[in-house]
Write a structure and sequence with these properties.
- The protein is of the alpha+beta class.
- The protein folds into two domains: 251 residues, Transferase(Phosphotransferase) domain 1 (Transferase(Phosphotransferase), domain 1); 136 residues, Serine Threonine Protein Phosphatase 5, Tetratricopeptide repeat (Alpha Horseshoe).
- The strands form three sheets. A four-stranded antiparallel beta sheet has the order 1-2-4-3.
- A hairpin with a 4-residue loop joins strand 3 and strand 4.
- The longest helix has 44 residues.
- It starts with a strand and ends in a 7-residue tail after the last helix.
Length: 517
């Protein structure tokens, strides 16, 4: 297989310009192309949908499609008009600016369990002093696939590019966020030295640090940790690197006092006694009346200073900002309730289709999530509901990620665990349809465990409809695992909560080897 060149496409049906990246698969046929699609499409979809809902410095994937006759996979990227990173050596200040600009984007990817997998200088563009990340490592993996005589994929290619790969990736392990950090560190050294990795590494793949000159000791220490061969000694993700850079920058500011005389503690004729006796007059304590009198005089003196009016103005502006934020929050919360109400009504009427759920998801993302995420207890509810909408759109992996965020905010948030269980149940059913029974069983077992957690959290509400739903979901997972006796116990619990439950009747009909009481 080989990787084709990038070509620029003019406006496609009035859309902005796009980049088309084609991956040509040599000696391929329709059968092999189908297997490539099955292997990589979930990853491409996950990245595509994540980037579509983010405002970060990363080229979005607009579309992807397959040509069976031409043995190719075409990926359409957002067109970013920018220039490649310059080949001359950079100084430390420019590197720090670059890192502060690009690390938040990489942090967002890592927080959402997305690894770039192919960080190197040629995968960055500069546009108006902003840096953008391009491409992803799955492209290099597809480009190096090989097949056996039965058209099965017979290898697991390495992600990334030779020279920029971390040791663990080179050894065949899946790239992780800390693998991206290594690749970014190698990229930084290349920018500092204007040399390729082959020229600043020795035969043992170790950095020749003597070539990395004119950087501060603190930054050298950060850089060394980024490119540690042992991943256990490396930064775990982009956030840790960003924190280290920020700490170094703050330390540098503290080391240079803004007022050179601020540290002068000399005092003629009395050492530092004047400081020790602050608040005293001639060694005697002031009376309460004197303190109040001085305070009033101080307040009146402020009225004569322009700075005082700026302070008052600042307080008023701050109050208005707080009020504006509160209004925004109340509006977003009302919109959130309206979305839930619309979905409930559409569900009852049987008119909720894919377009409807997509519309409500976009509404949630644009009008609710950016505002309400500032409120921790509301954020978890919105996250779980977003996971629910993604599930309705059969985007179950994204749904799982969203539900995980909800649970991370509150470990006792039962709706979040219910959302996780539903995602696992749906993923298990998909694997079951594809005859991947081992993977399906793993998903069903995880679903059962999540629903057990929901039941545990809801035990104090024995008549809750949510508890009835949790037992229903648990029974569904157990039936999929062919554990019908345990499923029967869950069905009996539903009957205790609601003897007339339609859910228990539908579950009873799904049992093959046992019968309900």
């Amino acid at each position: 297989m080989r990787y084709s060149s990038i070509v620029e496409i003019d406006n496609i049906q009035s859309h902005p310009q796009r980049f088309l990246k084609g991956i040509i698969i040599n000696n391929c046929n329709y059968s092999r192309l189908k297997k490539v699609k099955k292997r990589f499409e979930p990853e491409v979809k996950k990245i595509k949908f994540f980037l579509a809902n983010q405002n970060i410095n990363c080229a979005k994937i607009d579309d992807y499609y397959y040509y069976g006759d031409e043995n190719s996979i075409n990926i359409v990227y957002e067109y970013i008009k920018g220039k490649e990173l310059t080949e001359e050596s950079w100084n430390e200040a420019k590197i720090i600016y670059f890192l502060k600009n690009i690390l938040p984007t990489l942090q967002k990817l890592h927080e959402n369990k997305i690894v770039h997998g192919n960080i190197k200088p040629s995968n960055f563009l500069e546009q108006n002093s902003n840096y953008f990340l391009l491409d992803f490592g799955f492209v290099t993996k597809i480009s190096e696939l090989t097949f056996d005589e039965q058209d099965n994929i017979e290898n697991e290619p390495l992600q990334g590019t030779e020279g920029y790969r971390a040791k663990e990736v080179q050894e065949g392990f899946e790239a992780q966020p800390y693998s991206d950090i290594y690749s970014l560190g190698i990229t930084i050294i290349e920018l500092l030295t204007a040399k390729s990795p082959q020229k600043f590494k020795n035969q043992d793949d170790e950095i020749i640090w003597e070539l990395v000159k004119e950087i501060s000791p603190n930054f050298r220490q950060i850089l060394k940790k980024m490119v540690e061969s042992n991943d256990r000694n490396r930064y775990n993700n982009a956030e840790e690197v960003l924190n280290a850079i920020e700490d170094m920058t703050r330390q540098g500011t503290r080391d240079t006092p803004s007022d050179p005389q601020s540290n002068d503690t000399s005092d003629t004729g009395g050492g530092s006694t004047g400081n020790v006796q602050n608040g005293h007059k001639n060694g005697k304590k002031k009376t309460l009346a004197e303190i109040i009198k001085q305070f009033i005089i101080y307040l009146f003196s402020l009225l004569k200073k322009p700075k005082f009016y700026w302070i008052v103005f600042g307080i008023i502006v701050l109050f208005e900002i707080i009020q504006f934020t509160r209004r925004d929050y109340l509006k977003a919360y009302k919109t959130f309730e309206e979305i839930q109400n619309d979905v409930n009504i559409a569900h009852k009427k049987g008119i909720a289709d894919e377009y409807f759920y997509e519309t409500k998801l976009n509404e949630l993302d644009k009008e609710v999530l950016p505002v309400i995420r500032l409120k921790k207890n509301e954020d978890e509810r919105v996250r779980a509901y977003r996971g629910f909408l993604l599930g309705k759109l059969n985007r179950h992996e994204e749904s799982f990620i969203e539900c995980e965020k909800a649970v991370s905010h509150n470990p006792n948030f039962y709706q979040g665990f219910n959302c996780l269980g539903s995602a696992e149940l749906a993923l298990g059913e998909l694997k079951q349809k594809d005859n991947q029974l081992v993977e399906a069983t793993k998903h069903f077992e995880k679903a059962r465990d999540y629903f057990n957690k929901v039941i545990e959290l809801l035990k104090k509400y024995p008549d809750s409809e949510d508890l009835e739903l949790a037992y229903y979901n648990k029974a569904s997972a157990l039936i999929s695992l062919e554990k019908e006796e345990e499923a029967k116990e869950a069905i009996n619990e539903i009957k205790k909560i609601n003897p007339q439950s339609k859910k228990s009747k539908s579950l009873c009909q799904s049992l093959k080897k046992t019968k309900c009481d």
